[in-house]
Each structure stands twice: as C-alpha cells, then as structure tokens.
Amino acid sequence: MTETTATTTGADLPKVEELAFDDALAELQRTVAELEAGGQPLERALALHERGAALIARCDQLLNDAQLRLEQLVSRSGGTLETRAVSADDAIDDAAG
Fold first, then answer.
1. What is the torsional sign of CA 15, 18, 24, 27?
2. CB pairs under 8 A, 24+ apart, for 45-52?
C-alpha cells in the first residue's frame, strides 16, 4: 500500500478525537497545504477536506475547553473567594488599568 493510499483511507492516521491540540493543528496545516497544492484525484481531495473539517472541529473543541478552564479567583469583602471567567477583554482591561 502506498503512502497516498494509506493516508487517503486514513488507515495509518490517529483518530481526530484523540489528538492533542498541537498535533491536530499541525496536521490541519499539512492538510491545507496539500489541498492548496492541488493535483490530487477527486477522492483524495474529498478525503483531505473531510479530515480537515474534523481537525478544525477538534481544534475548536479544545480551544473552547481551554477557555472554560481559564478562571480567575477574585477576592471579595469578608475574605471569601469567587471564580470569574476571564475573557480577552478582561485581560486587556487589567493590563491598561
């Protein structure tokens, strides 16, 4: 079996849902580069597109999960603590403040 055939069928590729963010992003970049280069048979181009869409969804899921984990402990009067979600706007406001 050639590399192209194995990659087209996905036989040697890890499951997208098991990839870490950096691995999924690196594979997505390679997939986009191959699609942009062109010249693939239709079936190969379709397989690349489908894999790319799955990789985008995986990266999006992992980024959303990471964003949910970014919480900041805020001291309240009386010494109690509460958690507050941190957004990019909050970080900019804190840096300017």
1. negative
2. 47/7, 47/8, 47/9, 47/10, 51/10, 51/13, 51/16, 51/27, 52/28
Extract the tokens encoding 24: 């999924």
**In whole angstroms, how far apart are CA 4 and each of 27, 29, 55, 83?**
15, 17, 19, 49
**Alpha carbon of residue 25 to chain centroid:** 6
Domain spans, the chain = 3-69
Please write the tens of the pLDDT for every residue from 59-96: 999 998 887 776 555 555 666 766 666 665 665 555 55
